[in-house]
Amino acid sequence: MPVYKAPVEDVMFLLNDVFPIERHNNLPGFADATPDTVEAILAEGAKLCEEVFAPLNLSGDQEGCTRNPDGSVTTPKDFRQAYEAYAAGGWMGLAAPEEYGGQGLPSVLNTIMQEFVSSANLALGMYPGLTQGAIAALLVHGTEEQKKTYLPKMIEGAWTGTMNLTEPHCGTDLGLLKTKAVPNGDGSYAISGTKIFISAGEHDMAENIVHLVLARIEGAPQGTKGISLFVVPKFLVNGDGSLGDRNGVSCGSLEHKMGIHGNATCVMNYDGAKGWLVGEANRGLNAMFVMMNEARLAVGVQGLSQSEVAYQNAVAYAKDRLQGRALTGPKFPDKPADPIIVHPDVRRTLLSIKAFNEAARALIVWTGLNSDIAHRSSDDAQRQTAEDYMGLMTPVVKGVLTDLGFDNAVKAQQMFGGHGYVEEWGMSQFVRDARITQIYEGANGIQAMDLVGRKLGKDGGRAITTFFNEVGAFCQENAGDESLKAYIAPLQQGLGHLQQATMWFLQNAMAKPDNAGAGATDYMHLFGLVVMGYMWAKMAKAAQARKAQGDGVADRMDAKLLTGRFYMERLMPETGTRLARISTGADTTMALPMEAF
Length: 597
Known about the structure:
β1 (about 65) and β2 form a beta hairpin. The chain is an alpha+beta fold. It is about 55% helix and about 10% strand. The protein has a 5-stranded mixed beta barrel with strand order 4-5-11-7-6. It has 18 helices and 11 strands.
């Protein structure tokens, strides 16, 4: 059976040494998040993930969800008990406002917990994950009555939440949606239509499900300008908070899909279901984007999670599997063969995954801290910078971490040879589960176009300029440190490639938009390489400082420094390749006639 151990030690290095959490004690919720408290919280979360969630991952994949004749859905064996343990532990409300029953702790802790949960059991973790996104949307755009009605139960975990966007005829182009909303005359609307690919749309783990649904009010403009957002509960809620009649929403079928079998991905039918407007009429996308952006960052975490759990199992196998002898002579002469981890190509593969995992985790933590600053800081300038960062990094986190998360799951599977291809070892599940992360919440090509087409030029390029200045300043400040030369020089070169690519778009994409489209994915990955290189440079500096303290962590810090050097030597040079591809433009890509495909 696959194994999983939450990387608490690595996270604490990030929170204590690389991005000291105590620096943010002026923000609401941070004063209570002392290092000892944070470590205790994460250790408890790790225990839940390792002992309750992870053992159900393989069995949940094999059993899947079942739609019953009455439209109800049964989740895999013991999923409900595991979810109840999660809810009872207060994990749903870890970072939620105290006024609605949450603990008000930094949201970065919830982000870290999302990695642990998703690594342990991605399908199960999606149920509370989507609920947290729905909570975020209602907090920002819900009326006081809606907040009072739904948030306490959702934060408690008694009710879950979903997001309903996609329809059979439209995915990314939501302007084509047909789901309609007709005023009932009492402040509510009758919602009718069909939504597909709705994760956690129906299940047996909570007493109510709160759907956030995009629909077009009768008579509203066509296109995206006529879309509104509605809250549509599975069961109507009485004035005293108790559950009333069943609403006109049901699961028509379950999708038969490649992975995440333990999550109920539903076709949802709305037949005059009662719903209430969230936010302003015809501005539903604006409201839904709060949830979508939360979800995109969460999906980036999912990409890392599958890379991490697949890596852990690949390492365990590589240390145990005996095959061949080391090229430089037997390393274990008392055994019939050496473990495969002695072979350079195996080490190359494992180090590629490890170097990504640690940099991606740093990026997630840094992004989580910026999210806290953006939502909690009273300093306008500080908050603006954090918001700029979040907008710029959201497509990078979602697109790069899921693309590479899937690639790494495949690499880890490869370590098992034929054993990786059979289901009993569990590696194929990581590959199958990781695949969806590249697709949902906006396919990764869309993320790349969002980065190039919207985020680079937003506010006159303020966000990208700030990022360039920050990384450039870090390189300049540490250029004279000989111990960091192996990290700073490659980072400077990669940053130069990213700046050249950005300038190329400015010079060649305005008059010819296809140039932006053809180079967007390469640009997104070039950006990802540089920002993860920046994370490695910061980690290397922190590791050197920690090592100098002489507190018994020298071996661990040396391992981190070597992993960072591997990233800089073997992965960072790809920035040159990405720049070369971008610079070729779109001519050849667009020249082939459609009939020739």
